[in-house]
Amino acid sequence: MRRLVLLLAAGFVVSAGCGGEIVVQAQLEGEDGAEPLTLASLPVRVLPYDRDALFDSLAAAYPVPEPTIPDSVMQLREQMLAAQAEWQRNEARWNEVRDSMRQLLDEMNKLSRTSGQYRVLYREFERLEDEERATNRAREAAFQRMSSLQSQLAAQLEEFRLKKEAWEDEAFAPLDSIIPALIKSLGREEVADTTDATGTVRVKVPKGRWWVHARYMLPNEELYWNVPVEVTGGDPLVVQLTRQNAQVRPRI
Fold this sequence. Notes:
By secondary structure, this protein is an alpha+beta fold. The chain has two domains: about 1-50 and about 185-250, Immunoglobulin-like (Sandwich); about 70-170, Helix Hairpins (Orthogonal Bundle), CATH 1.10.287. About 50% of the residues lie in helices and about 20% in strands. The chain has five helices and nine strands. Helix 3 runs antiparallel to helix 4 (about 115-170). The radius of gyration is 28 Å and the shape is elongated. About 15% of the residues are buried.
């Protein structure tokens, strides 16, 4: 453990002086012309060490390889997401057709049943009625597929999660002693805070090498940041957390 601490601490020099300020701004770009999504209330940690290097070192030192998600599970996940997307498409179209049918009924109720315009609208209503039935069948079938795949996926992911957690408990057990020793060796404490309503957080730290760490959960994936920065004093150092500089990890 002492050797690992010394290796991780090597190259870090605590500079003299009052330090500087790191300004973290977290925002995701809007899709299809939508407004950007400001990541408010995002927990942010500013670390004096590279947590990825620390975890990688412990994983490499542990004699048993880290469990990985089987390809079969990832394929099942893709099938479930495809079924989910199909259900959502059919659900949206089903609602659109029903809205159109309601609008036609409103127009037809204002007309005489013997008028030519009424007959035109009635034929369109019949066409939409057929589409509504077909879309509803497709919607229900896709929902059944999605539900079945979700159940299978949940069972397999739970099995994998338990196996991975057992491995992590063993492989990363030294962290409780390594991190305090590493922080003591570096002479710098980590700083934790949360972004405000504008997606911004400001922290003051001593000069030197730091890593800005944060995670943001999306429905099917996780955005992970571990951004290295060098604080030299002077003007505040601005760090942007965006999708472009995040690691995108599937949520399991």
